[in-house]
Specification:
about 750 residues, Alpha-Beta Plaits, DHBP synthase, 4 domains, seven-stranded mixed β-sheet, about 25% strand, globular
């Protein structure tokens, strides 16, 4: 007989790991104990050497569904004799390293419970077990015990307590366990904040109001959704008017996969993702001749689709006639709302009713969004179901590090030992509310882990709120080391980290904005890089952004600037272009003066802004309502039968698109312009790649969220057996910046 101490690291708390170990120990004749600690799960095993080996092997091969083991450490222990196996009380210390589990969609067993008339959780809308339900959104501290969650004040009834204490039950130590007798319940309020129904009556009435064309705020796991009938033109028009969201697509929730078949085309991989316990929004191709309102996603062939992720949603759909719009409840530029009080304060003019429950959301979390391209998953938003996300790296961080990400699509990361933990998507830091939420979430994470950073890493952009925050922290603690990492290099590092790449790569980083080493705005960069250093090998030829940040919202300004680069003022005024009619002649002359004198006209090499310009030049869109709209519209017009591309030059490491601009002006067909332009971008990438055939390719930055562009490149590189790396676990957009920033410190 031998004694072994087994330490298991990763996502191993709140996922049914201890009861799993308990039952596995009995199966393999293991005596001893298991407990949660601040680092994960700790086991002391007393048994025959062979039995312990079989026990450990089964843990590795067949762990609980929601767990993710990052490491297992086995140590010899002094002889201790145990006569049975127990689950013992959790320990706590100041060195916490366990990984917080993301919120997970309701499992099949719990769905069955709520529709089983003999089950005491029949029609209970907050049903969950160790295999599903909220985790991150209800957590106050580590370890993941009920006392550290927003359910600590809900005393378990006898039946729930019995399940909670029974190691053979799937709700053993399920910290969010509850039922209608002892747990949180649902409430329905009207627009005057009057309580009109509770429990299942509240849900049934909410369904009726949705069918009647009303707009509701409904509390989901990580925050409120604004919900309405996705087939009702009148209601959606009202929603767009009140939310001041003229064209930005809405996500749609469908009852199940069978009903989705009538509305969208999806592959086996996409179906698996839709029905997974992450339940993200998946971008799919719309089907023709379905009853969804055209106002759901105007002028776009794709639709964001997702399935119910909670018991509440399933019960809601029992009485719904149609799919529903389910979009984040927030004011523009602000984080998702988590309380009914804020719904009434901020969205009282928008919602007719509020469906709430009295379990507090401690950490907000938006829906994740992704798409599948050539069987690769490309994340557009990494949040519920996937984040907080963790990455085990080769090597160890010598110090505790906090990286603060970018300004758009903000996240942050912490690093210690061999782990990087990245927060969920926190939105753009463009409002006081979003900045406060970002700082609050950073503080929560540091508290989770009793984490005192020794190094702070941030972007080089002096106006980024995340950069300002880094300097604030440095001012409060002068002993903190502060490191700044160039934005586009951080994009590259994120892919190197995720894919464990140690060699030199040829990295294409195309996006909208990033502070360059020459203090210009970069965004069309080609680097030769590794995890220690980078060299800017090529870049898009600089052009001016007329009006600075205003040019981001008005693509017509970028288009005009490119005309000024290639024509005289008189020639521009004589050009018979539709987009020029959106300006007064006097305005064009004024903007020309600004362009000439470089007044409020910073230089940029951004491919993101080039997408904007082409969109306006082709008379597709001149004023942008949401980020990435131009890319979406260009992609929407793409015709795969058009193989031609526009002319360009690569001279002295500069990508010159002057010829392309002139060729676009001669083309009347929007579809041809859009198709040839995407082909041109792909061709530029491919041509430069051919100049460096010995280097693997990295693609990163927001432009590589363009499905069509990535599809072309992946197919082309596959034909030539080129190795291509693209972030999959992490988004190619600015969400991944904090990961790249923190990874840079691995070498220090």
């Amino acid at each position: 007989m031998v004694n072994k101490k087994i330490s298991i690291f990763g996502i191993v708390q709140g996922v049914g790991f201890r009861p799993y170990i308990y039952n596995l120990a009995r199966k393999h004749k293991i005596n001893g104990w298991v407990r949660n600690d601040e680092n994960g799960v700790e086991i002391e095993a007393y048994a025959k050497k062979e039995d312990i080996e079989n026990f450990i092997n089964e843990i590795k091969v067949n762990p609980p569904v929601l767990s993710k083991i990052s490491d297992i450490k086995i140590e010899k222990k002094k002889q201790s004799i145990y006569s049975h196996f127990d689950i013992i009380e959790s320990t706590n210390s100041k060195n916490k390293t366990t990984i917080i589990s993301p919120d997970m969609a309701i499992c099949k067993d719990c769905i069955a419970d709520i529709f089983d008339e003999t089950n005491f959780r029949f029609l209970y809308p907050l049903n969950n077990c160790t295999n599903c339900g909220p985790r991150y959104s209800i957590l106050k501290a580590i370890p993941y015990d009920r006392v550290n969650t927003s359910l600590k004040d809900f005393t378990l009834c006898k039946e729930c307590q019995n399940e909670f204490e029974n190691p053979t039950n799937r709700r053993y130590h399920a910290q969010a366990i509850s039922c209608e007798e002892c747990g949180p319940i649902t409430f329905l309020y009207d627009s005057k904040q009057t309580l009109i129904a509770s429990k299942i009556d509240a849900i049934n009435l909410a369904s009726k109001y949705i069918n009647d064309g009303k707009i509701l705020a409904i509390k989901s796991m990580g925050g409120f959704h604004i919900v309405c009938d996705a087939s009702n033109d009148e209601t959606i028009f009202r929603l767009r008017e009140l939310k001041k969201r003229a064209t930005k697509p809405f996500a749609v929730m469908f009852k199940d996969v069978d009903s989705l078949r009538n509305y969208a085309i999806y592959s086996r991989i996409e179906e698996d993702i839709l029905t997974s316990q992450q339940r993200p929004i998946v971008l799919l191709q719309k089907k023709e001749n379905q009853n969804l309102s055209n106002l759901v996603a105007p002028n776009i062939k794709k639709i964001g689709c997702f399935l119910p992720n909670s018991a509440l949603h399933y019960l809601l759909f029992e009485n719904l006639f149609n799919p529903i719009i389910a979009t984040s409840a927030n004011l523009k530029g602000e984080p998702i709302i988590t309380t009914k009080e804020d719904i009434f304060l901020k969205l009282s003019n928008l919602v007719d009713f509020v469906l709430d429950y009295n379990r507090e959301i401690l950490n907000s979390c938006d829906d994740s969004i992704l798409q599948v391209v050539n069987e690769k998953i490309i994340k557009l938003r990494n949040s519920r179901g996937y984040a907080p996300s963790s990455l085990k790296v080769d090597g160890k961080f010598s110090k505790k590090i906090l990286s603060l990400g970018a300004n758009q699509k903000s996240t942050f990361s912490i690093a210690f030992d061999n782990k990087i933990i990245t927060a969920p998507y926190l939105g753009d830091l463009d409002s006081i509310a979003s900045i406060e939420n970002y700082k609050k979430t950073v503080e929560n994470f540091l508290n989770f882990y009793d984490f005192v950073p020794e190094i702070i890493v941030c972007d080089k952009h002096p106006k980024y709120e995340s950069t300002k925050f880094a300097f604030e922290l440095k001012d409060k603690n002068p002993n903190l080391e502060l490191v700044q990492v160039q934005h586009h290099y951080a994009h590259v590092l994120a892919v190197l980290a995720e894919k464990s790449i140690n060699e030199d790569v040829l990295a294409f980083v195309f996006d909208g904005t990033g502070y360059g080493d020459d203090k210009n705005i970069w965004g069309g960069e080609v680097f030769i890089a590794n995890k220690k250093e980078y060299k800017r090998a090529y870049h898009l030829k600089y052009f001016k952004l007329l009006g600075g940040e205003l040019a981001i919202k008005e693509p017509k300004r970028v288009a005009l600037s490119l005309l000024f680069d290639n024509f005289t003022l008189e020639e521009v005024l004589d050009l018979p272009l539709d987009f020029l009619k959106t300006f007064e002649k006097s305005e064009i002359k004024t903007l020309y003066t600004l362009w000439q004198k470089s007044l409020n006209s910073p230089l940029t090499s951004s491919f993101g802004r080039l997408f904007d310009a082409v969109c306006s030049l082709a008379n597709i869109l001149h004023i942008q309502e949401f980020e990435g709209q131009t890319g979406l519209y260009i992609e929407n017009l793409y015709d795969e039968n058009i193989k031609e591309f526009f002319s360009y030059d690569i001279v002295d490491q500069t990508i010159d698109i002057s010829k392309m601009i002139k060729e676009i002006l001669k083309e009347d067909d929007k579809k041809i312009v859009a198709s040839k332009f995407i082909n041109t971008v792909a061709n530029i990438v491919f041509e430069i790649s051919n100049l460096h055939k010995d280097l693997p390719i990295v693609l990163s930055g927001g432009v590589f969220q363009n499905r069509t562009l990535v599809e072309i490149l992946l197919k082309k590189f596959k034909n030539y057996n080129r190795k291509v790396y693209l972030g999959e676990k992490y988004s190619p957009n600015d969400e991944s910046i904090s990961l790249g920033q923190v990874y840079f410190q691995l070498k220090n």
